[in-house]
Design a protein that fits this description.
Elements lengths: L18 E5 H18 L2 E2 L9 H7 L7 E3 L2 H9 L4 E7 L5 H9 L3 E6 L2 H14 L5 E5 L15 H10 L3 E6 L10 H24 L6 E4 L2 H4 L10 E2 L9 H6 L9 E11 L4 E4 L3 H4 L15 E4 L5 E10 L4 E5 L13 E5 L3 H5 L4 E5 L14 E4 L5
Length: about 400
């Protein structure tokens, strides 16, 4: 871990609130869990760093050294390349204006795979590669569930797009993302989504190979399917990012438990409105984000569940409303409000770790492996987030 912590902020009682805190013990455990699954399935793991956007967190992904990563912005790609990660997939559809930055990274010795799903994109990627005289490996995005972009594996135009890339030395493979898996309610539904994700990617790859086109990379992944896949035959790599921290959406899907959530936001009680059943904090949507991802699940968790400063869940206390800098806590299931005087510090578990993390410049790091705290948790390090958020 990096970055010394100010002596005046050695515990979670020190820094001004709101601020993000990461439990490094849970983070390590989450990372190890998915790594073990990838090893059992015989595929490489290419973690998505868009969740943490932290070089310190990325160091845990690959045993302290650089390794293959997925990014969602070129700013992330540049920051992680600067830290020695030279095998990068930029998993957002490419457009011409961004290619000079990609080419600049390639000229620094970084492999940057770009993503596309149209002949138009293939043509300008091929032209840019020829003009710059560099390799621009491209992945064709495959739509496995109609959730977002991509081509169906049986799309008539798929071989033609691949041919344009191949003729310019740019064809690397195919990539898919099971976005609909975030709405799976049962373990069997998640396994079915993982099988469908695999089948779509492998079918596309086999179709291209049958047309005489080489396919090196067959990339699949979402956090729900990565943890549900039981057979990845024909797949070369697995992607996921949310698993580093997990969140209430993943817990609501059954992908993880509440005790796996590594990210929380520390807030302070600043007022009471007993006539409305409210406790007010200084952590609004600027601290938690606007994400209400659990609203579509059987148990709506509002803007987040509330724990004490040591991380112990306070039963039935939920952050149910947010304005820019104010959070409103209420009790559900007929429970009474706990006694929380002004100045009390609490931690809020987020709906969507990626969105909540993006509201903060970095993370104060504690270590839950120390066991139940008898004092306020000690801050062991500060992990700054990289640019691009």
């Amino acid at each position: 871990m990096s970055s010394a912590v100010s002596p005046t902020a050695r515990t979670l009682a020190g820094p001004d609130t709101p601020f993000a805190v990461v439990d490094v013990h849970r983070t390590r455990r989450n990372i190890a869990r998915l790594r073990a699954r990838a090893d059992r399935l015989g595929v490489a793991l290419r973690p998505h760093v868009k969740t943490a956007k932290s070089l310190d967190a990325a160091a845990l992904l690959h045993d302290g050294g650089p390794g293959p990563v997925t990014v969602s912005t070129l700013a992330e790609a540049e920051a992680f390349a600067g830290a020695g990660h030279h095998d990068i997939t930029y998993a957002v559809g490419i457009e011409p204006h961004k290619l000079p930055r990609v080419i600049a990274l390639v000229r620094r010795g970084v492999t940057v795979r770009v993503l596309l799903d149209s002949t138009e994109q293939a043509v300008f990627v091929a032209a840019a590669a020829r003009d710059a005289r560099v390799a621009l490996p491209a992945l064709i995005e495959i739509d496995c569930d109609g959730h977002r972009g991509g081509l169906r594996s049986d799309a008539p135009g798929l071989p033609g797009i691949a041919r344009v890339l191949h003729d310019a030395g740019c064809l690397d493979g195919v990539l898919t993302h099971a976005g609909e898996s975030y709405f799976c309610r049962t373990a069997e539904e998640r396994r079915a989504a993982a099988r469908n994700e695999r089948d779509a990617a492998v079918a596309a790859a086999e179709r291209l190979r049958a047309a005489g086109l080489p396919v090196t990379t067959v990339s699949v992944g979402s956090t729900p399917t990565a943890h549900a896949a039981d057979d990845l035959t024909g797949v070369t790599e697995l992607r996921a990012g949310n698993h580093v921290f997990f969140d209430l959406v993943m817990a609501g899907l059954g992908v993880c438990g509440l005790d796996d959530l590594a990210l929380s936001v520390v807030v302070t009680v600043i007022g009471h409105r007993p006539e409305y059943g409210w406790i007010l904090t200084d952590g609004g949507w600027m601290a938690m984000s606007r994400d209400r991802g659990t609203a579509a699940q059987p148990q709506d968790q509002g803007y987040g569940l509330v724990t004490d400063l040591n991380g112990t869940l306070i039963p039935d206390l939920v952050m149910t409303a947010a304005s820019q800098e104010h959070g409103t806590l209420t009790a559900r299931n007929g429970a009474g409000l706990p006694e929380l005087p002004i100045g009390t510090r609490l931690r809020v578990l987020p709906n969507h770790a990626c969105a909540t993390a993006a509201q903060h410049h970095g993370y104060h790091v504690v270590d839950g492996a120390l066991g139940p705290a008898t004092t306020v948790p000690v801050i062991e390090a500060y992990w700054p987030r990289v640019t691009g958020w």
